[in-house]
Write a structure and sequence with these properties.
Layout: E1 2-6, H1 14-27, E2 34-39, H2 42-53, E3 61-65, E4 74-80, H3 82-92, H4 96-111, H5 119-135
Parallel strand pairs: 1-2, 2-4
Antiparallel strand pairs: 3-4
Amino acid sequence: MIEVENFSKIHVCRKRIRRLTEAFLQDKKISHKDISISLLDPKAMAKLNKSLRGKTGSTDVLSLPALKVRGSNFYGEILLDPEYIKQQAKELKIAFLKEFDFILVHGLLHLSGLSDDTEKKRLKMIKLGEDFLAKL
């Protein structure tokens, strides 16, 4: 089950989020997994970014993989700040939903165990995200 909650001021279609997440899971052959996706306002995201990563200010996405518990179907949680993503899209001169989809996929890649803590890994994740979205 893919649970989507929107606590932000920006509307993003829940069906769109679920469809993209389902397509990702199917593409990666990940089955019977539950994911929670929450859209947060910048203040809430900044608070979580500080407590989880020690970073000041908001961020586009935080991914929280589930603990590996035998028998658990919970895959993890993705937290998104649509206002932050909207600003990023504006700076990149691309459509908001295009950037939103890319960031959601980036978060899903993190749940899958990938990291972007080095430039090489970051570039690999960008390519994987772009390649996946190009297939849709």
